[in-house]
Design a protein that fits this description.
There is one protein chain. The protein is rod-shaped and about 85 Å long. The protein has 140 residues and is mainly α. The protein is built from five helices and three strands, in the order βββααααα. It has a three-stranded antiparallel beta sheet, with no helix packed on it. α2 packs antiparallel against α3 and α2 runs parallel beside α5. The protein starts with a strand and ends in a 15-residue tail after the last helix. It folds into two domains: 39 residues, no CATH class; 91 residues, no CATH class.
């Protein structure tokens, strides 16, 4: 196949044997491999939104994990094994948030935001009240 790009940026493929050359117009030029790849595999605007949102999730997660560490050290010092175990479970849930099925299934900015909030909400709901303080004041 040989590929041409027209003046409007459209990509066209023609047989190498010349049997379709009559369809190649004056406003077309031969496309480079890089141009073909860029047209066939465009970067979607949502992909950029998703990457940005995941970066924010990671930053906020780090803030919460730091708070959990403080609560966990205090719990260990006080011999509060139940709180320490709850923190371990909450920590793992936070580490797994970027693999959350709802977040990965989101297809637009609105559904992504809803999925992120739902995932955090589920983590908070599963966390004991004395550990939930780690989430207070964190803007998601």
């Amino acid at each position: 196949m040989k590929h041409y790009i027209n003046a409007a940026g459209g990509l066209f493929a023609f047989e190498d044997d010349g049997s379709q050359d009559e369809f190649i117009t004056d406003d077309m030029r031969l496309a480079t491999e890089a141009e073909i790849a860029a047209i066939q595999n465009p970067t979607s605007a949502y992909a950029d939104v998703f990457v940005g949102a995941m970066n924010v999730v990671r930053i906020k997660r780090e803030e919460i994990l730091n708070r959990l560490a403080g609560i966990g050290f205090a719990a260990l010092a006080e011999g509060d094994a139940a709180t320490a175990q709850a923190i371990v479970a909450t920590r793992q849930s936070l580490l797994d948030i970027t693999k959350n099925a709802g977040i990965l299934a989101a297809t637009d900015e609105s559904s992504l935001r809803d999925a992120i909030l739902a995932a955090y909400g589920a983590i908070v709901a599963a966390t004991p009240a004395n550990v939930q303080t780690a989430f207070r004041g964190v803007d998601l």
